[in-house]
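Colleagues,

Please find the record for the two-part complex below.
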Amino acid sequence: MSQTTAVHGEKISLLRVLGPAHVWALGVGIVLVGEYMGWNFAVGKGGMIAALIACWVAGLLYTCVAMIDSEVTSTVAAAGGQYAQAKHIVGPLMAFNVGLYLVFAYTMLEAANAITLGYLVQTVGTMAGFADVHDKPFIVLTIMFLAWLNYRGVYATLTVNLILTAIAFVAILILFAAVKPWSNELLNHQAMLNGLPYGWLGVIASLHFGLWYYLGIEGTCQAAEEVRSPARSLPLGTMTGIMTLLIAATMTWYVCSGLMPWEYLGQAVTPLFDAARLTNSMPLMVLLFVGTVFSTLASANGCINDASRAWFSMGRDRYLPTWFGAVHPKNRTPYRSIVFLVPVALVFAYFAPLDQVITFSILSGLLGYTYMSLNVILFRRKWPLGMIKRGYIHPFHPLPALVLLLLCSVTYFAVFLGYGTQLIAMLIFFVVASLWFHFHRYQYVRRGDQFTMQWPRPVGY
Amino acid sequence: MANSHYEPPKQSAFGQLIDSLFLLVLVIAALFAPLYLKLAGGGKIDIAVADKSTWAGLGQSAVQQAQWEKLGFTPETAASIITSRFDYSFNPTEVVITAVVIIGYFALLFAFSRTEYREVIEERFGRK
């Protein structure tokens, strides 16, 4: 499947320029911001210990996601990632929904990044004596600048991401070493840890924001058509990404939980920057300021990249107006999709509170993970091992799929605890959108064009 | 084995615009409705404390007090954060309704997708 569009009668395709390091940067770059903000709302929902348990349980969930995703993506190496997989394995309506999950998860994450960056600039401005600094202009500037960068080209965008992500990750490592985790000089877990304030129900509830530590790692496969060697690069980039995040998440929890009261941590907008403030070290504060800025920029950058490619793919396949399925003749980027999603991100970044925006992003991701668990079972049934060439075969099938489905079910309940209205509102949206697609939009879709892989007929059809 | 080819109608520019706007309005309406109706992220209550004007009255130890102060808080400004808790009491009927909506949504997706997928496979590989 080649991602092409015709301009003046000439076929133009996306460029295959990315290696495993870019895949790692795209995955971790989107997600690392989860250590800098958002994860700590899990503390608010269940306490410190609950957040740590949620961190590890969510790590298990995402390990299942990475295992499943690596197999399917290395086989269906097409831009749009899970969207393209759904088209080939489940059907057009599922693909339409998966495309929307991806767009919302990433666009809301982009909005959350812009909110955090604006808040941080406002906080630092106030600390520096500029009490009148407003966050809103920085929110707008961030989104507009990154959209422009994405408009210009994928290689430059993801190379920038690689650098920003590496610096943000190193900042966490330096903070961890600087607080001397082997001593009680700065950290005081004995005084800060408070058991389980909500009991075990709080542990389940905290799983809601526990997903934030890793949400978006599956974005590695969005660039499948722009990767030089998908079968090698995608599993390698995704798996090393998950390992990086597990390490960073545990270190982040350890530092923050030893430095600040859980009530504060549970609602903080920039917890790692606050941790640096509590060390009384100016170099650390500057470093974590830079780390937070870079991580939000890298994440928002990757989000625009992924959301626009999912929207572009849907336009190209006529699931959305075909106008969106155009590639820029010079920059070779899905420029119309990039521009169209800018106002959506701006509206949410400007008007909605951070925890709500994050919840919308998490819910979109959660619906996507539920689909993935069912998708891989259908994939193995329709094309059993040996029938088609797979870049990677994940072990212990169907155990990862069943564990993923179970953990997704528990997480729905976790979201229901405290955010049930958003859950229902979002599902109503997807039901209405699905009916619109099936009874209206699907008439414009070319049936046979939805299956482009050179595979044999699926078993059972 | 015969390949039945479906040729979709051409959509006008106006039709494309209407479809784009429909989705945009639907997205914003669905996501903003809970916020606008103040139903989002509800379920929070305030717990009773001995005294909201002192750290001890708020149940904070000396170590915790020091950290609050480093972050720029006084007992008065920290009180609303310290006393706020999620209310996890729920009606089992609400859980059942939510579960039915989630399962129903996925059932709808897979059922409609299956019908559409058959058409895709028949056109791609021919009728069996």
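Strands of chain B lie at 44-46, 84-86.

Comments are welcome before we finalize the supplementary table.
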